[in-house]
Write a structure and sequence with these properties.
Elements lengths: L1 E6 L2 E6 L8 H4 L10 E8 L8 E5 L3 E6 L2 E7 L6 E9 L2 E7 L13 H5 L4 H5 L4 E11 L2 E6 L6 H12 L2 E4 L2 E7 L2 E5 L15 E11 L4 E4 L2 H9 L9 H17 L2 E6 L3 H11 L3
Parallel strand pairs: 2-3, 3-8, 10-14, 14-16
Antiparallel strand pairs: 1-2, 4-5, 5-6, 6-7, 7-8, 9-10, 9-11, 9-12, 12-13, 13-14, 15-16
Helix pairs in contact: 5-6
């Protein structure tokens, strides 16, 4: 089977076996009438290829190899010594993706989960050179502008987004990630096919009003961050392949552009309507 998708400005085609179930969140980004610029071929196999080339990084759930400008990845489940998938670039415009036979129907490796499925395609590797950033954040839309709440997991991104939904009728577009890209002079938030535990995922593009870095507190206090402060706080919430020096430079350049074009705030907040009002008045929303 063959389907074409678009995430940001990256248009790609998946060729995959009929037995593979594509997650509903991923299907939101299907664009059947577009011409793909990149091609993935997915194959189920009893044995997976062994990568060649220089080992760049080795983690519990990922190893990455590099050979002649092309990348190969082995993907593992945490605590499992055997890898379940292999991503292998064979040209600048095509990658082969091998998944171990039988895993599709195993609950602990369910490929219909958006996180597992999306990780097969090394999307950040292809999206970053196109001028996009992947930000760990809750993405909401209020009066046709995006407000992005960003912080490490557990701080309360989804909670603050839900407060805006409750008290200001804002729409939550994604509870865990947003893709950020610039068109002309305008930075916009785009949908992303992974939404974490929030289960909120929509394919929508919205100009960004502000990015708000969060911390928990007993009172609600907000301040606008300087560019240096903003860079320091946001960088840790951006998806970047730190083993790839070119990717790190591209991300840093894009982030510098972002923080000069978008106001970045730090909100020390409680779980209350007062937290919503505090940010609302700072943003001077008409």
């Amino acid at each position: 089977m063959t389907k074409t998708f678009q995430i940001g400005n990256f248009i790609f085609q998946l060729e995959y076996p009929a037995s593979l179930q594509i997650p509903e969140n991923f299907l939101l980004f299907e664009t059947p009438d577009s011409d793909p610029e990149y091609f993935y071929e997915i194959t189920e196999a009893n044995s997976l290829p062994e990568p060649r080339g220089k080992l760049l990084v080795q983690k519990e759930d990922l190893t990455v190899y590099h050979c002649a400008g092309l990348e190969t990845r082995k993907m593992y489940l945490r605590g499992n010594a055997d890898y379940y998938a292999c991503y292998q670039e064979i040209s600048p415009h095509k990658a082969l993706v091998f998944i171990r036979s039988g895993l599709n129907n195993t609950p602990e490796t369910s490929f219909w989960l958006d996180t597992t499925f999306t990780s097969l395609f090394a999307l950040e590797r292809h999206i970053s050179p196109r001028g996009f950033l992947i930000l760990h954040c809750a993405y909401l839309c209020y009066r046709d502008k995006a407000i992005l709440f960003s912080a490490p997991s557990g701080v309360g991104k989804s909670t603050q987004a839900e407060l805006w939904h409750k008290y200001r009728s804002a729409s939550i577009i994604n509870g865990d990630r947003a893709l950020l890209g610039k068109s002309g002079t305008i930075w916009s938030a785009y949908g992303w096919p992974v939404c974490g535990s929030s289960e909120i995922c929509r394919n929508q593009t919205t100009p960004v009003r502000a990015i708000v870095m969060l911390s928990q507190g007993e009172t609600n206090q907000i301040r606008r961050l300087t560019p240096i402060q903003a860079f320091s706080e946001i960088y840790g919430q951006i998806t970047v392949n730190r083993w790839d020096s070119q990717s790190v430079k591209q991300t840093a350049d894009q982030l510098e552009d972002l923080i000069t074009g978008i106001p970045i705030y730090h909100l020390n907040c409680t779980i209350s309507e007062e937290a919503v009002d505090c940010l609302y008045h700072m943003l001077q929303i008409p």
